């Protein structure tokens, strides 16, 4: 089992930045992939970015490239999502997730473990 706890959300003005954190506990394997998703009210859960726990290989949704950066600190068992140039349409509940494979997965159904989410609100 993997437990995930997100933090770092909040209210920010358009153009601002936030850094989300996801603390992982329990077992993680070298093949584990960590991902960030988001869900706005009335919309489906949307892939944001992923990173390989051991190899650090990243992959982003096209709309996030250049603004969002995913990273990890293996010593702290923590994954981060640095979000810059935030827009009102980035407002959503942001989730951290994990699955036991190195395969790049953007489908939320492929992820086995989820955090409770952290709210990000961007005002115009």
Could you report the average pLDDT, rounded to the nearest whole number? 94
Order of helices and strands: EEEEEEEEEEE
**Count of strand segments:** 11
With helices defined by DSSP (H or I, 4 residues minimum), what is the helix count? 0
Sheet/helix structural class: mainly beta
Taking the sheet with the most strands, its summary is: 7 strands, mixed
Overall 3D shape: globular
Identify low-pLDDT runs: none
Q: How far apart lie the N and C ends? A: 40 Å
Task: Offer a quick outline of the entry.
With 124 residues, the protein is an all-beta fold.
Question: Which properties best describe this structure?
Answer:
single chain; 124 residues; mainly beta; seven-stranded mixed sheet; four-stranded antiparallel sheet; globular
Describe this structure in words.
Strand 4 (33-39) and strand 5 (46-52) form a beta hairpin. This protein has no helices and eleven strands. The protein has strands at residues 2-7, 10-13, 18-26, 33-39, 46-52, 58-60, 68-73, 78-83, 92-99, 113-114, 118-123. The model has no long low-confidence stretch (mean pLDDT 94). It is mostly beta strands.
Set down the secondary structure blueprint.
Layout: E1 2-7, E2 10-13, E3 18-26, E4 33-39, E5 46-52, E6 58-60, E7 68-73, E8 78-83, E9 92-99, E10 113-114, E11 118-123
Parallel strand pairs: 2-11
Antiparallel strand pairs: 1-3, 3-8, 4-5, 4-9, 5-6, 7-8, 9-10, 9-11
């Amino acid at each position: 089992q993997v437990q995930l706890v997100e933090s770092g959300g909040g209210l920010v003005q358009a153009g601002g930045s936030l850094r989300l954190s996801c603390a992982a506990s329990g077992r993680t394997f070298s093949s584990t992939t960590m991902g960030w998703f988001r869900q706005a009210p009335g919309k489906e859960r949307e892939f944001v970015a992923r990173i390989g726990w051991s190899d650090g290989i990243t992959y982003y949704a096209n709309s996030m490239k250049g603004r969002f950066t995913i990273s990890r600190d293996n010593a702290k068992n923590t994954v981060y999502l640095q979000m810059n140039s935030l827009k009102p349409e980035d407002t959503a509940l942001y989730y951290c997730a994990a699955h036991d494979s190195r395969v790049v997965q953007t489908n939320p159904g492929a992820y086995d473990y989820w955090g409770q989410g952290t709210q990000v609100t961007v005002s115009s």
